Amino acid sequence: MFQNLSITLNSSQNYSLTQPWLQLGPRVPLRNRPVTRISCVSTRPKRKSVPINDKSEAEELVRVIMRNRSGKEPFLKTLNKYVRVVRTEHCFLLFEELGRSDKWLECLEVFRWMQKQRWYVADNGVYSKLISVMGKKGQTRTAMWLFSEMRNSGCRPDTSVYNALITAHLHTRDKAKALEKALAYFEKMKGIELCKPSIVTYNILLRAFAQARNVERVNALFKDLDESIISPDIYTYNGVMDAYGKNGMIREMESVLSSMKRNQCKPDIITFNLLIDSYGKKQEFNKMEQVFKSLLRSKERPTLPTFNSMIINYGKARLREKAEDAFKKMKDMGYTPSFITCESLIMMYGFCDCVSKAREIFDGMVQTGKEMKVSTLNAMLDAYCMNGLPMEANMLFESAKGIGIIPNSSTYKLLYKAYTKANTKELLQKLLKRMDRDGIVPNKRFFLDALGAFGSSPASAKSARTTTVVSSLQDSAQT
User: Fold this and answer.
1) Which of 143, 121, 142, 129 is nearest to 94 (CA)?
2) Quick one: which of 314, 412, 377, 321 has its CA closest to 361?
3) Hey, which of 174, 179, 241, 387 has its CA 20 to 30 A from 434?
4) What is the mean pLDDT of the chain?
5) What angle do CA 271, 274, 276 make, to 5 degrees?
6) Exposed, middle or buried: residue 25 (CB in 10 Å: 0-12, 13-18, 19+)?
7) Rounded percentage of the chain residues whose pLDDT exceeds 70
């Protein structure tokens, strides 16, 4: 597939750097020159900033602040303890940490605290970061408010701010409306000198429309990109191909791949991996294996995700020998299996009706003494459940805390679906009581996923069972 792919790098460009120095007049002896003394007095406290090229100190300070924060007192009280050393770079890291832990309201508290500091200067970067965090948390209105706040503070929006705003809208649930808004901002950016769309803007929009299966709009954006002074990069092609591949749109994915080859854009390991995964999910194993061979001939090297994808996709097709060959190839090339590799093997053996082999891998991981992840437990439970072994799944679930694993909401969800599908009322009631004891309160998504277990049931049976599921969940939540 990549045999004829080549790229020509024109690296022989000559750059002439000129420095127009001031032309001085006749030289005057130093002692005869008039002496002018200039003194600058700063009214701001001396800034104790962290070196730009060394983020370790800033990251360490942020870790200390996050450790010392208490849920019983306002976060601002903790910040005030470090007021002499906290600066903009620390606040950026705090935005990231708080955003990851869904503490977006505290991000706004940090922002308001920043604005009161003498060293604070309104900056597009700060607003862009905050808009991005709010967007990821689905707080589009807050992102819009920050955009207005930025303009009111005297900052002029630039491309990065609009990119963050577009991304924020694309995180909303109403995807059709979000795409419409994104396009409106895109057109607006074209008319503002400081906000011309960048390749990042195109990449965001292209991936979004590919995810929405809007091939016509993707082609229009590619055409617009071709007519502009901007050239697509590897992220452009990878983003669109990955979106098409995840949607199972193989023909469209291959069309983008052909365009990438015509533009002499060399594939990277992400390109190879997404192609391998996309073909594997569609069980087009001849093409998947062809891409893998091309990868081995290229300058790139396979990564663990390469093999993990092949193992799990062979497993779904019940091709156990091929999956085991892929694992052997991985070890022969000197790779050490990760916990994700082990989870892929567990799932593969589950698909291939080899539950004992799956359990053997799980027990081997426990015996290493390393910290076990809840995702590994879920993989083993899923292997039991897909093979109609709810009792064995329950026994493992009951022993989970003994091996240092705390079940999460996904654990309860997959067990609930399995127990309901198997009509094991005793296990179901036991699980509901455990959920109540562990403080797992089912939400709307839990209901929808649990009811998904009856997707293949007749309408009347589904309706009757739905009533039972909903009532039992509600009773559990109330008791």
Assistant:
1) 129
2) 377
3) 387
4) 83
5) 105
6) exposed
7) 81
Give the residue with greater pLDDT, 371 vs 272. Answer: 272
Angle at 430 between CA 424 and CA 435, to 5 degrees: 120
Q: What does the alpha-carbon distance between residue 215 and residue 10 come to, in Å, rounded to a whole number?
A: 33
Q: What is the pTM of this model?
A: 0.76
Check: CB of residue 366 under 8 Å from CB of residue 403: yes
- Nearest-angstrom CA–CA distance, 114 and 127: 12
For residue 97, what pLDDT is reported?
Answer: 85
- Stretch (H or E) spanning 279: helix 269-281
Read off the tokens for 211. 């995810």
Are the C-beta atoms of residues 384 and 393 closer than 8 Å to each other? yes
Distances in Å between the alpha carbon of 477 and those of 15, 283, 471? 70, 42, 10
Q: Radius of gyration of the chain from Cα atoms?
A: 29
The H or E element spanning position 269 is helix 269-281
Mean pLDDT of 219-241: 94
Higher-scoring residue by pLDDT: 287, 34: 287
CB neighbours of residue 82 within 10 Å:
14
Q: How confident is the model at residue 204 (pLDDT cuts 50, 70, 90)?
A: very high
CA distance 407 to 403: 11
Q: How do residues 20-77 score in pLDDT, each as one tens digit?
A: 333 434 444 444 444 444 333 333 334 444 444 456 888 888 888 888 776 667 778 8
Determine the 3-state secondary structure of 20 from DSSP.
Answer: coil
Cα–chain-centroid distance for residue 172?
16
Sign of CA dihedral 162, 165, 171, 175: negative
Instruction: Give the count of beta carbons closer than 10 Å to the beta carbon of residue 398.
Output: 11
From residue 50, alpha-carbon distances to 86, 270, 448 in Å are 10, 34, 48
Comparing CA positions, the residue from 211, 210, 235 lying closest to residue 221 is 210
How many residues would you count in the chain?
479
What number of other Cβ atoms are within 10 A of residue 170's Cβ? 20
Cα–Cα distance, 402 to 393 (Å, whole number): 15
Cβ proximity of 402 and 372 under 8 Å: no
Q: Which amino acid is at 75?
A: F
The DSSP secondary structure of 151-216, one letter per residue, reads HHTTPPP-HHHHHHHHHHHHTSS-HHHHHHHHHHHHHHHHTSGGG---HHHHHHHHHHHHHTT-HH
- Residue 284 near residue 250 (C-beta atoms within 8 A): yes
Strand, coil or helix: 14: coil
Q: Rounded to the nearest 10 degrees, how much is the dihedral formed by the CA atoms of 183, 187, 193, 195?
A: 0
> How far is C-alpha 47 from the geometric centre of its chain's CA atoms?
34
User: Which amino acid, 147?
Assistant: F
- Cα separation, 125 vs 132, in Å, equals 10
- What six digits make up the tokens of 102? 């869904």
